[in-house]
Amino acid sequence: MVAFWQQRGRRQENGGLGSVIDGLGSVFDVLLANARLVLGVSGAAVLAIATLAVKRLIDRATSPRDEGDPKAEQKSLEESWQDLALIKTTPKPPKTQRREDLSEPLLSPARPVVPDPRGCSAPLGASQVKSSPLRCLTLQEKLLSRSSQLAVPEIQASLVPQLARGICTHLQNFLRSKFPELPFGRLFLSGALLDGLEVLAADHVHLMLPLVLDAGLWSLISGEDTVVRNPQYWMIKRIDLGYFPRGCSPWDRFTVGGYLSSSVLNETLHKLLVASTNWPAIGGLLGCAIHPVVASQELKLEVKHDQVELSITLFPVVEMEEKVLLAVPPEGLVENLWLESFYRAEVSRVKELDAGDSGARQLCLRILNGACRSQPSLHKLGGSPVTHVILHLSDTASDWAEESLADRFQQVLEELVASLEKGVLLCYFNPKINLLSGLLEEEIDEMGFVLYRAISEPELLLK
Q1: DSSP state of 327
Q2: Which of 112, 192, 210, 237 could form a disulfide with 197 if both were Cys (CB 3.0 to 4.6 A apart)?
Q3: 168-206 burial string, b = 16+ CB within 10 Å, else e?
């Protein structure tokens, strides 16, 4: 008896709800019949899918099922999720319709979607009435665009050399008055900014202080023949002491063990810059604030102006036997070593090659230096190492025209990765020198990882 009343109650509920469903069905039919006229083809399709899903949900909710079968209930729930997912994933119609779309024939076929051969696709739901499709930039176009973004701000490009030359003049006069017996040469500025290769910001300049040595009293000994076994370093030996005893050269006061000591010279100049030079007075004349960096091992000045901030590093330099040696000793107990610099030769060679074939080596170098400057892990790779890779490639790749910039850029990245994998990048001017010898293994691994990714995604370096 109980089962009978339960079954009768269900029939009554179904009967009452059935009339409602029939009413909704007629409404849906009317909407679908007129949807194409009101919403267009795509809008009618969206409404039809949504209507079908809702009707399925209502039919499933009113259809009798076995209450004792948990699998049937679980299946019904899963089907409901699928229907809801169908509604959510249905693409939305365009918000705006052209007047012409309302007058199109009802049975007009849908326009086929033509794929973009360059791999660019319009965003989902975008109107197809636009006449100019999106276009992907080639690597060549991205490189040229990036090069235009690397320009140094005009105020820095003009003001920084002006401030540096003013400091150079005052420091030159002070050295001559402080050490009249020492034959210092004329101070001059050096660096990428002066050679048109600076990128992004002009915030550092090198100040070169030449030492004039008597070639008859001094000679060079390669670092390869010393305990450091590094051909990039040199020692400057005092010779002919029998005929010209100690004191005959004004530079004898800076010798240690018969060699001109770069460390002793730097210590003397450091004390001069920190304690003896009246930088507030010089800064007042130039309209800036000048502060020597006390804690640094380098001879460095920090310059602050209302419009720029500048770092100036002073390098004592010796030019002998067609070599340029800087007073930059390696870390450790060896204090008589001088580092051979190839910067002047690098810049001269790159410009000479570009002038010979109207090449884009300098452009490629600026883009790569900008990438190394923007990527903290690549800082030590910028400048000289990248320049030497470009010079090596210039011996094998003849086409350096601007039209081939993308190919050469990609090739430089591949050569850099290959060099980092081996841990060896030979100096263009002296193949005995490994330009990567001063890097830690962790630094080389990190550089290699970044550049390896950049081979397949060059855009990583152009941000």
Answers
A1: S
A2: 192
A3: bebbbebbeeeeeebeeeebebbbbbbbebbbbebebbb
